[in-house]
Write a structure and sequence with these properties.
The structure holds two protein chains of two kinds. Helices cover 86% and strands 0% of the residues of chain A. By secondary structure, chain A is mainly α. The mean pLDDT of chain B is 85. Chain B is an all-alpha fold. Chain B is built from ten helices and no strands. Classes of the chains: A mainly alpha, B mainly alpha.
C-alpha cells in the first residue's frame, strides 16, 4: 500500500517542476475528489452488513477516540505553552 | 463547519444508497475508491509542490513553537493509549485512527483500504468529531490550556477548516504557527496511518 505515497511524491515533483504556472482549480479538484471518495466510502459502508449492524457501537468508540486524542494533544500544548512563557520571562 | 456538513452529506448519501441497495452490488467488485485515492494523493502533492514559498515561510517561527506538531502527535497517542486498556480494538488500531488528527477524509479512506470498512468508519467518525470539537470548543480550550491549545486540537485541519476559529480565539499572531502546525500534521497523516496499519 506504500505505493499510494508514491503518487503524492510524483505529484509534488510535477507541481514543483510546473511551479511557474499557477493552477487555481487545484483546491476545487481536491475537494471534488474528496467528495467522490466519501460518497464511495459511504456506499462501501452501507453495503457492509457487519458495519451496519455494529454502527451503534462504532459511534461511541469514535467519540471516545476523538475526545481522548484531543485531550492528550491539548495537554501537550499546555506544557509547551508554559515552557514558552517561562522562556519569554527570562 | 459548512464544509464538514457537505462532506458528511456525501458520505450519508453513499451510505443510504448502499443501505437500500439502490446501486447494484457488482459496483463494488471493482476498486474505484483506490483509483480515486491515488488521484487525490497526486493532486494534493501537486498543490504542495506548486507552492514552494509556503514551505520557506516557516523559518520565521519562534524556536520552541516548532515542537507543537510533535506535542500534538505524542499527546494524541498518549490519550488513546489510555483507551486501549478498556476497549476491544488493538493499540495500533487506536493509534492509526487517532493519527488522522482530524483529517477524516484521507485517514478514513486509508484505514478502509488497509484495515477494512469497520475501522475506516470509526476513523471517519472520530476525525469528524475531532474537527467539530475544535470548532465548538476553541475558546474554552484556549482559556484552560493556553493559546496553543486550539491549534493542537485542530490537528491537521489548522491550515484550512479550523484556521479562522483558531485565529479568532488565539489571535492573528498565531497565523504562521497555525499554518505550520496544520502543514506538518497534515503531511504526517498518510505516513503515520500507514505505519500503524502496518503493525499487527
Amino acid at each position: 500500500m506504500f505505493y499510494v505515497l508514491l503518487f503524492m511524491f510524483a505529484g509534488m515533483i510535477s507541481g514543483y517542476l510546473l511551479r511557474s504556472k499557477k493552477f487555481s482549480f487545484l483546491n476545487r479538484l481536491i475537494l471534488l475528489l474528496i467528495w467522490l471518495l466519501l460518497f464511495l466510502l459511504g456506499l462501501e459502508v452501507g453495503m457492509n452488513q457487519q458495519v451496519v449492524n455494529q454502527f451503534a457501537n462504532l459511534g461511541m468508540e469514535a467519540f471516545l477516540i476523538a475526545v481522548l486524542g484531543t485531550l492528550g494533544s491539548v495537554i501537550g500544548a499546555k506544557i509547551l505553552w508554559n515552557k514558552i512563557k517561562k522562556q519569554n520571562e527570562r | 463547519m459548512k464544509g464538514s456538513l457537505i462532506i458528511l452529506s456525501f458520505f450519508v448519501t453513499g451510505l443510504l444508497l448502499g443501505l437500500y441497495r439502490i446501486l447494484p452490488t457488482s459496483w463494488l467488485n471493482f476498486d474505484y475508491s483506490l483509483y480515486v485515492l491515488c488521484a487525490l494523493m497526486f493532486t494534493v502533492g501537486f498543490s504542495i509542490g506548486n507552492q514552494p514559498e509556503t514551505i520557506r515561510q516557516f523559518r520565521t517561527i519562534h524556536s520552541s513553537v516548532i515542537l507543537l506538531p510533535f506535542t500534538t502527535i505524542i499527546g494524541t497517542w498518549a490519550g488513546v493509549l489510555l483507551l486501549s486498556f478498556f476497549s476491544k480494538y488493538s493499540l495500533p488500531d487506536y493509534l492509526a485512527v487517532s493519527s488522522g488528527f482530524g483529517y477524516y477524509s484521507l485517514s478514513s479512506i486509508l484505514i478502509t483500504e488497509y484495515k477494512g470498512a469497520e475501522l475506516g468508519t470509526i476513523a471517519l467518525l472520530a476525525n469528524i468529531f475531532r474537527e467539530v470539537i475544535t470548532l465548538l470548543l476553541s475558546p474554552a480550550l484556549a482559556k484552560y490550556f493556553g493559546k496553543l491549545a486550539p491549534i493542537a486540537a485542530g490537528g491537521a485541519t489548522t491550515m484550512d477548516t479550523t484556521f479562522p476559529v483558531i485565529i479568532k480565539t488565539s489571535g492573528k499572531e498565531f497565523t504562521i504557527v497555525s499554518i505550520y502546525h496544520g502543514f506538518v500534521t497534515d503531511f504526517s497523516v498518510p505516513f503515520l496511518v500507514t505505519l500503524w496499519c502496518g503493525i499487527k
